Amino acid sequence: MAERLQKVMAQAGVASRRASEKMITEGQVTVNGQVIRELGTKVEPTDHIEVNGTPIDSKEKLVYFLLDKPRGVVTTNSDDKGRQTVMDIVDEPERVYPVGRLDYDTTGALLLTNDGDLANKLMHPKYRIDKVYVAKVKGIPTNEELEKLRHGVTVKTVQNGRHYTFNAAPAHAEILSTDKKKHTAIVKLTIHEGKYHQVKEMLKSVGHEVIKLTRERYGMLDLTGLTPGEYRPLRHEEVQALKSGRQFRKSAGRW
């Protein structure tokens, strides 16, 4: 049965569907020797597909890993600046890629897989999987500021020289500890979105710059037993929970 090219690429573990679409439009993909740039192109199981000259294997074993991402590592498959990537850490025979991203200076829970269907599902806006962050911030947030985060804030920022505004959904926000001498606080924030620099921008919008940030939990996956730079395969029940959607928050509104 014919399938869309980007879906076949995702299922083969090349990249997520969105990233596969970008590869197609950039002319990195050939089908039976012909460069394909049109999205929506369908291919047959017998077609020969190559990405940058490398044939893809549509029968690749599906694998799932949880990484405790260290600080100073980029969440990409390669980096044109020569920085260490998460792919330099996860040394496995299967070709995996990160689900979503964590900033260069953000640490914590990162899922990597070659299951394109699951990755696409987890990153789709309609599926609202909880992501728990712990941030060290300048200043001590007031109850009023925390309430703003709990009701949702409007973030205004600049990305690549362009002004950008988005409405962040309501988050669970609480203070874990404070240091009155240093005038800092440790804040736990639970969100289900994944916009660029979202946690940093949300806290900045209520007057608190993030000094240090880690993602402690992704759905039910936490960092128990891992130290920065270590990773482990997901257990069968963890994979099934992610696939079944039991980790998704489908109701909107205030926490």
TrEMBL record:
* Residue ranges of every copy of the RNA-binding S4 domain listed in the record: 3-71
Per the record, its GO cellular-component terms are: cytosol
| EC number(s) given by UniProt | 5.4.99.-
Among the Pfam families in the record, one is PseudoU_synth_2
Which leading EC class covers this enzyme? Answer: isomerase
| Alphabetized CDD domains for the sequence | PseudoU_synth_RsuA_like, S4
Superkingdom to which the source organism belongs:
Bacteria
| GO biological process assignments | enzyme-directed rRNA pseudouridine synthesis
SMART domains from the UniProt entry = S4
Task: Select a single GO molecular function from the record's annotations and give it.
Answer: lyase activity
- UniProt KW keywords: Isomerase, Lyase, RNA-binding
What name appears for this protein in its UniProt entry? Pseudouridine synthase
- The gene coding this protein: rluB
